[in-house]
Amino acid sequence: MVRIAVYQANTGIDPAANAARLVDAVEEAAAGGAQMLFTPEMSGMLDRNRKRAAAHVTGEADSPVLKAVAGAARVHGIWVALGSLAVRRDDGEDRWANRSLLISPEGAVAARYDKIHMFDVDLDDGASGESWRESNGFAPGERVVTAKTPLGRLGLAVCYDMRFPALWGALGDARCDAIACPAAFTRPTGAAHWHVLLRARAIEASAYVIAAAQVGEHEDGRKTYGHSLVVDPWGEVLLDMGGDRAGVGFAEIDPARIASVRAQLPSLANRRAITK
Q1: pTM of the model
Q2: Tell me: the pLDDT tens digits for 62-74?
């Protein structure tokens, strides 16, 4: 068994305050016996006001949030799947990257993944509705990323990525044992789709899915769904942190469960390429 921790956050607009909470979460996870901690999308700052946010967005190497979390990981000897940060890209692109960072117990970046699918939607929730254009401020990534961890091979995805089966098919082809899907899910889409999509993705990848989420009402005015989940390869929910408050939760990951499910239902082995 591998014990993991999940940090459900209510991230605000001040990176220093958010970094302090992340450091506390690393300490709490380690004290609880976890080998890995998973945090949500935009763990360092959640701010819809791009002009205000821009003052705090740096390149990866200069990120004070990353430095704080990497330092805490090193002090406590724990892996951290830092859900994502807004970072400036190195290629001169004006738009930022929504970047997930995997940090080793030595405090080094072991893998990085830029969110591929941008959340460009108009939601009709029966009231005022919500419009989001993530692509206005963020450039999409292009690479599928996996890495070896105490859980086995970990695949990286971020939030809206969960709606695109091709990415998850690629992670399945890579034989990921677990897939991280940190999120800042809206309440209307969360109530309708969060549980069913994550359970379906775990089933089709025959892998654990670990989805740390933002929760509550945030300083920038948005409201997020919460319900950080850990789902096993059979689609059973092992942890649901609810939609009310931030905090750290724990779950046990059983590598034997992956082998058992894949032996019973070898869908990854049975899958065939479809030609048009």
Answers
A1: 0.94
A2: 999 999 999 999 9
191 within some domain? yes
Cα dist from 247 to 38, 77, 98, 125, 132, whole Å: 12, 20, 23, 28, 27
159 catalytic, yes or no?
Answer: yes
Report residue 88: phi and psi, to 5°: -75, 140
Residue 272 falls within a domain, yes or no?
A: no
Residue among 27, 28, 41, 252 flagged as catalytic = 41
What's the CA gap between 272 and 134, in Å, rounded?
34
What is the number of structural domains in the chain? 1
The pair of structure tokens assigned to 139 is: 């450039």
* Helix intervals (H) in the chain: 15-31, 50-54, 64-76, 134-137, 165-173, 187-189, 195-205, 255-264, 267-270
What CATH number should be reported for the domain holding residue 203?
Answer: 3.60.110.10
In a domain, 275, yes or no: no
Q: Which band of pLDDT confidence, cut at 50, 70 and 90, is reported for residue 124?
A: low
**126-136 residue pLDDT tens:** 555 666 688 88
From 27, 115, 176, 219, active-site residue:
115
Residue of 67, 148, 159, 223 marked catalytic = 159
Quote the domain boundaries for residue 41: 2-265
Q: Which of 30-34, 45-49, 145-149, 223-227 is least confident?
A: 45-49
